[in-house]
Amino acid sequence: MIILSVETSCDETSVAITLDGRTVLSNVVLSQIDTHTLYGGVVPEIASREHVKGITHVFKKALKDAAVTAADVDLVAVTQGPGLIGSLLVGINAAKAFAYAHAKPIIGVHHIVGHMYANAINQSLEFPLLALIVSGGHTELIWMPSHMQFERLGKTQDDAIGEAYDKVARILDLGYPGGPKLDALAKTGTARFAMPKTQLDGYDFSYSGLKSHVINVVHNMAQREETYDPADLAASFQKAAMNQIFEQTQKAIKAYHPKRLIVAGGVAANAYLRAHMKDVWDVPIEIPAFEYCTDNAAMIGIAAYYQWQASPKSWSFDFNGFARMDFLTEAYNKGEEVIR
Q1: Residues 9 and 147 in one domain
Q2: Which DSSP category does 314 fall into?
Q3: What is the pLDDT of residues 302-327, one digit of tens each?
Q4: Quick one: 23 and 135 in the same domain?
Q5: Cβ-based burial of 198 (10 A; exposed 0-12, middle 13-18, buried ≥19)
Q6: Residues 168 and 221 both lie in one domain
Q7: Which has the closest alpha carbon to 234: 191, 287, 297?
Q8: Domain for residue 338, yes or no?
Q9: How far apart are alpha carbons 318 and 27 in whole angstroms?
Q10: Domain assignment of residue 139, yes or no
C-alpha cells in the first residue's frame, strides 16, 4: 500500500511517500528555521505563507524521489491537528486537492499519533508498549495495548518539556530554535545549580515551577550584579528536567510491565535524553532516527497505514483542521474520523 502523506502543523512543509506502514520511499522536509530565526520564534502568519510558497514543490519532489506517480498512490493522509491552524489548513487543502484530482481516498491523522508511529519505520512495534511523548506542546505517557489503541497514563499539568526548554533558552539569550541550542550548551557546563524537584501524583509531569526557578535565578543574579556561566545553568536545568522524565517513566514501567518503551516527539532528538535513557532500564527502548523525531510527513504516512487497517474508509472532503485535538477518543481508537 503506497501512501502519500502531508505534514504542515507548524513550520516544516513536508510530503512523504511510504510503503506498507514500514518503508519510507521519500520524505521531503522544507524547513522555515532561517525565516523564523529573525523573529526569535515561529510567527504563525509567516509560517502559513511559507507553506503556501513551498507546498507544490515539496509534492513534486516527494513523488520524484520515490519514483512513483500519482496513479501509484493508494491513499492520501494529512495531519489534521493539533497545530497552528493556518499551517494545518494549507496542508489539508493541498492534500484534498491532490486526492480529489486523482480520485484517491483521504484520511486525517493526529500529529502526536504520527510521532508515536515514527518508531514503526523499518521495524515492527511490539505490544503492549508504553509511549513517552516529549515535544514542544506535549509531555505524556501513553499505554498502547495494540495498534491504534491509546490510554493516557499521565500528562503535564502545565508546561510541556519542550516549551520549558524554549523559555529557558530565551532567558539565557540563546536564540531560536531554543531547545537544541540549550541542549548543546548544557554539554559544556556543570550541573552545579540547585534545582527544585516537583512533587507529582501518578504519572503526571510539571515544568512550570522548574522554568520559573531558572528565570528567577537569572533575574536575581542580575540584580545583585553577579556573574554566572550560562552553560552551568543550562546543564542544571536539563538534568532536573530529564530526571523528572526518567523517574515518572520508570514508575509507569514498573506498574505496567510493557514489552517496549517508545519515545516520540521533537525532544526525542535531545542528546542528553538519548545518551542517558537507555542506561536506565531493562525494558527495550526505541527512539526514532533524528530525521523522524522532528515534524515530518513520513511518520504521518506510517500512522495512516495502521489507521486505515483499523477502518478502511475514505473521509468526506469537508473535514477540517483543529488547533487543539485529542486522539484519546473511541472514534479515533477505531480509526474513524473525529468530529469536533
Answers
A1: no
A2: P
A3: 999 999 999 898 999 999 999 998 87
A4: no
A5: middle
A6: yes
A7: 191
A8: no
A9: 27
A10: yes
Question: 45-74: string of b/e by CB count within 10 Å (b at 16+)?
Answer: ebbbbbbeebbeebbeebbeebebeeeebe
The overall average pLDDT reported for the chain is 93
For 207-263, the pLDDT digits (tens) are: 999 999 999 999 999 999 999 999 999 999 999 999 999 999 999 999 999 999 999
94-150 pLDDT tens trace: 999 999 999 999 999 999 999 999 999 999 999 999 999 999 889 999 999 999 999
The whole-angstrom distance between residue 18's C-alpha and the CA centroid of its chain comes to 19
Residues 154 and 206 in one domain: yes
Q: Can you list the positions of beta strands (E) in 82-186?
A: 106-110, 129-134, 139-144, 151-155
75 and 138 within one domain: no
Residue-number span of the structural domain to which 63 is assigned: 2-117+293-333
DSSP character string of 205-250: B--HHHHHHHHHHHHHHHHTT----HHHHHHHHHHHHHHHHHHHHH
What's the CA gap between 25 and 298, in Å, rounded?
9
Whether residue 12 lies inside any domain: the answer is: yes
pLDDT in tens, 12-34: 999 999 999 999 999 999 999 88
What are the distances in angstroms from CA 294 to CA 97, 124, 145, 270?
26, 20, 25, 11
The per-residue DSSP string of 48-71 comes to HHHHHHHHHHHHHHHHHHHT--GG
Query: Per residue in 23-75, pLDDT tens?
Result: 999 999 999 988 998 888 899 999 999 999 999 999 999 999 999 999 999 99
Cell of 200: 507529582
Q: How far is CA 85 from the centre of its chain?
A: 16
**Distance between CA atoms of residues 218 and 237, nearest Å:** 12
Helix 178-186 / helix 161-171 crossing angle, nearest 10 deg = 70
**Is the entire prediction scored with pTM above 0.85?**
yes
How many domains does the structure of the chain reveal?
2
Residue 80 has φ and ψ, to the nearest 5°, of -95, -25
